[in-house]
Amino acid sequence: MVELQGIPVSPGVAIGPALVLDAEGYRISRTLIAAESAEDEYARLLKAVAAVAEQIESNRLETSAVAGEDTGDIFAAQLQMLHDPRLHGELRRRIKREYHSADYAVNRVLHNYANALRRLENPMLADRAEDVLDIEKQLLLQLGAFDDQPLSDLTESVVILSHNLTPSETANLDRRYVQGFCTEVGGSGGHTAIVAKGLELPAVVGIGTFLDAVTNGTRVIVDGDRGRIILDPDDETLESYQQRIKKSQTLSARLAELRDLPAETADGTRIRLSANIEFPHETGSCLERGADGIGLYRTEFLYLSSSVEPSEEDHYEAYTQVVREMNGRPVVIRTLDLGADKMGHRPLAEQEHNPFLGLRSIRLSLRNLDLFRLQLRAILRTAVHGDIRVMFPLITKIAELRQAKMLLKVVGEDLKDEGIPYRADIPVGMMVEVPAAVVMLEQFVGEVDFLSIGTNDLAQYTLAVDRSNEYVADLYQSSDPAVLRLIQRCVEVADGSGRPLAVCGEMSSIPGRALLLVGLGVRNLSVPPLALSRIKKAIRSVSIDECHQIAERVMKLESAREVDMYLLDRLGVLVPELIVT
Ligand code: PEP
Ligand code: MG
């Protein structure tokens, strides 16, 4: 049994056999061979090397003829690498002395080689690393080890163990079979984490290098509550986790009884509790748990979960499905927040050095007006079917908000000219997720109908911490006093202007932090569907005075750690049922 600690990103426990993927998403299996097969295995490798060499040589000739010798030289360099004596020595040693299968030896040796090149932080050598990985892939193909689409042909339950999963890969996981996942890299605020919660998949990220030591099929426990994974658990551990699963099912059943009760404090302060969704099919779980509406519909997932670019009709159909199913409840559609860790199939921006500080979100939409216009048309068309509100993400400057609103107006006029049914008078809001917007909030507030704080990005940009980077995950805390002061300021400005203010970042889905937000004066929370019942339970268990006291005390504390410890302590007293033991 091996226990590993990572970062908890999506709660719950999953137990199942491991499906191990490496950095590029293909299966690796730590397979050992019998000592007497080592010679045959090595011969198999040499045959694969010869076949790959032939392929590379033919690539070199073809490319040189079409694109000139300089370009063809890329393949000459690959060929040289393929025949590198040190590389061969290491492969031979692994197969003949350590009895690794040829596939596993190739996978490990070439990966280590590529990683060593990457660590040198020289851009030219980093390119070489890509060549090494290319050779590895070709060798694995020759060896018949490489399954091109390991995730698309699942037939039984698995727990995915991977170096990384992008938000779109996560969005496409087959929920029928995938029970949970763990990755070597990643931080708590990344969109992979958010999708995991949306799919209700227990997940742990940022574990560090561990895949080398795992074989496909090993039993794994993913403890998404504590950020732990356990490989090959002993009977006692397995039994205790099975008990936890049962307890959590009992708690969920009890919380389900709150469905038709309002999210109000014990002494009657009503909090609007809405849901964050990424996919239309999530409306079912929102309604099951009694959401007051959709507070954040992350529409970019329409791009991330499809292999073709969505048309205006695709947008319209998805939005219409959501608004119809929510049956009169408000739906806040956030316009595309592509870029940074969410890239679609059309390269909308060049490769950037700092994508979270680059062309993402509203900036990207305003530079790709064809894309933006198409989405805004679909939103205004959907508005005839229900209570639709539009929200612009990552607004930093007033000019961005004005341009976006102007485009919305123009699009409405186009629809009118075309005689297509639409509604133009929908509420327009902005996300407050950049410190500059908080500082300048008085300027913005007069030009919007509502505000919604995105604490995921607000924490990232306030604390200068990449939300998806495991190395600085401990610094990424929405409970940091600096972030709390910005939230407090937003409440003051919103109250002063009479504009409704929501919090839709992940912060509002952590019970203690949600009570803190209510104590700070927030009256609208939007959380992943999975968190609805727990947050409702927390709100219904406290008085508004208790929330105010929490906020008053917290605002005197100096660090996120102190804040979280205090909140946990209060939660233990006020809502002990929600403490995970
Ligand atoms: C946020 O930043 O808090 C937010 C809700 O938006 P996203 O997580 O999609 O960036
Ligand atoms: Mg955001």
Brief descriptors of the model:
eight-stranded mixed beta sheet; 48% helix; TIM Barrel; binds magnesium ion; single chain; Glucose Oxidase, domain 1; 581 residues; alpha/beta; eight-stranded parallel barrel
Explain how this protein is built.
The protein is of the alpha/beta class and 581 residues long. It has four domains: 2-27 and 149-250, 3-Layer(bba) Sandwich (Glucose Oxidase, domain 1), CATH 3.50.30; 35-143, Orthogonal Bundle (Enzyme I, Chain A, domain 2); 293-426, Alpha-Beta Barrel (TIM Barrel), CATH 3.20.20.60; 432-581, Phosphoenolpyruvate-binding domains (TIM Barrel). The protein has helices at 38-67, 69-82, 85-96, 102-119, 123-142, 167-171, 191-199, 235-256, 283-288, 301-304, 312-325, 362-367, 369-382, 398-418, 435-439, 441-445, 455-463, 481-497, 511-520, 532-540, 544-554, 560-574, and strands at residues 2-5, 7-10, 13-20, 158-162, 178-183, 203-205, 219-223, 228-231, 272-277, 294-298, 331-334, 388-392, 428-432, 450-453, 501-503, 524-527. Strand 12 (388-392), helix 14 (398-418) and strand 13 form a beta-alpha-beta unit. The longest helix is centred in the first third of the chain and has 30 residues, at 38-67. It is globular. It starts with a strand and ends in a 7-residue tail after the last helix. The model has no long low-confidence stretch (mean pLDDT 91). The structure holds phosphoenolpyruvate and magnesium ion. Residues 393, 433, 454, 456-457 line the site of magnesium ion. Phosphoenolpyruvate is lined by residues 194, 296, 298, 337, 433, 454-457, 504-505.
